[in-house]
Predict the structure of LacI family transcriptional regulator.
Amino acid sequence: MPKERTATLRLQDVAEQAGVSLATASRSLSGAPGVSEAVAERVREVARRLGYVANVHARSLAGGVSRSVGLVVHEIGDPYFAEIASGVLRVGAREGLTVQICHTGRDPERELDQIRLLVANRVGAIIVAGSGFVDASKQAAAKADLQAFQRAGGRVAVIGRHHLGADAVLPDNQKGGRAITEHLLGLGHRRIAVASGARELTTIADRMTGVEEALTAEGIDPASVPVVEAEFTRAGGRQAAERILDEHPETTAILALNDDMAIGVLSALRARGVSVPEDVSVAGFDDVAVAQDLAPSLTTVRLPMAEMGEQALLLALKEPSSRPRRRHAGHEVVARDSTAPPRR
Amino acid sequence: MPKERTATLRLQDVAEQAGVSLATASRSLSGAPGVSEAVAERVREVARRLGYVANVHARSLAGGVSRSVGLVVHEIGDPYFAEIASGVLRVGAREGLTVQICHTGRDPERELDQIRLLVANRVGAIIVAGSGFVDASKQAAAKADLQAFQRAGGRVAVIGRHHLGADAVLPDNQKGGRAITEHLLGLGHRRIAVASGARELTTIADRMTGVEEALTAEGIDPASVPVVEAEFTRAGGRQAAERILDEHPETTAILALNDDMAIGVLSALRARGVSVPEDVSVAGFDDVAVAQDLAPSLTTVRLPMAEMGEQALLLALKEPSSRPRRRHAGHEVVARDSTAPPRR
DNA sequence: GTGAAAGCGCTAACAA
DNA sequence: TTGTTAGCGCTTTCAC
């Protein structure tokens, strides 16, 4: 980190070169009114020639405005969040905004720390992606900080169902859960098992609600359906699949609550010599890029991740409304090769 | 973005509440020496109680130091860069650094814009990930800006071979290219084809150099090996595979120069009814997370992406040396199910 | 239309 | 050990 005073160009230098005052130079470069076009153009020309770039810190300190936004994700290495980030960065670049990204590891405490850091950085907006917690108290502290941030003029948008009192982009978790279950039921499956992540996450809870709706509508008691809870990862999917195979050998279809788990399920089935979709059908959720490249290609629910990222930033860029806005993101069941009618 | 002056807490408020001067409050919170532990603790307590967070802009303006770094990637939605970013964020969080990420889309002009933006943001360090260009002039402007940034006290680290005059983490592209080719040759393949990306990228050039070394060592004329150039993506891999199948039906092994292309190759082969590895072996490069989950699982060269990200930030955090440092990242051929001895 | 000057919130000399 | 004060580079009234 630079310690010694950096010898960079200041606006003062540009002003002197252009033979105008600091104020005029400032106005010229920020496009503020009250400067003749001729002078403004001259100043801009000088700035360009000198390679001047304004000091964002000074600018934001003096003007109280910030051209940067913060994005809080679980883990950027996870394709789900990488896609969301991609959407956010795209809009950010278009709007000339800097985007700061940070990890939470789904730990409310780290989340809080990161949010505080973003507030300290005086970002103009904060976007929280990733699942909320069913237990609102887990994010109570974050909520308090975000509310204070909003009162101070900051903007907040979340992706997913949170109890954070902010504009939200809502993935179709419940409807998607219902739709993918209907797809399985429509194929004739009656012995379905679910590979689930931690139920304390709203993402999981909502997807499960959808699953249960579809089950009930078909006259199946949700309580009769095995739901194996494991980590929301490949490894978790593998474990879940093994337990399902061992404890519920009659299962004809496994629904994994995200693609990562579905990939783990596929790998466990392969290892056990269970063929998909002949012996067991497998479905996922999210439609990460690789879902189509697996063999068999994965039937899943497509969530428009990148678009959700874009929407979230766009929401955050709007004037705040009196009540939190909600945008529903849509979903689509993508039927591929991993699901087929059951044999029996 | 907040327009109205935000009514946040200032250090002055904390100082008053604690009954000390601004300077003492500053020292207490930044851990500077010259304050009695008792007073420092009291100030910290007050700050905590009030929920005070220092204004980074004021801090960096006054102190000339910055606790943030910039990361320049091709596209964050690409798993290769997402993994690198994950490594950078991990170290960043540990060091209390904010990380700004931006896209270039492999366009030198956008890269330059983004670098300028980072400089304007007075980040302490800039990390440029992604391939360099064989033609140094394409990044000449970026180089000039980065050099100026370094002279002004900023730190720069690159991942990959660039002509940027900065510390570098070098993926084992050449050695890896040689090793994976040797793997194919070792299995007995003599009719190998390469699905390559644009040769203007150093990543591709280096991997090809390794491939050619191995070929030559085995007494095969590199010029006799078909190299199909296409986009460095799945779609590009698909196209390349189709051309290889059409124009060089005798091919027994296809080496794709990254996993993304390899996935496209696999998908094209599947569509054509060509079985892997029985009819044709396929190998990739990078070992992105899904490589192991494909069917057949993909033989590839593992590059420690997340670690490369960590290393790059660590390099950038060190004191600058008189001459650019180089860190070699290592590689490992991971033999999986997509390669086997040729039939014929 | 242009310039002078007062801060923005903080750090770092320099005094006490 | 503590306090006073002068900036950091910019935006923004307020005069002219």
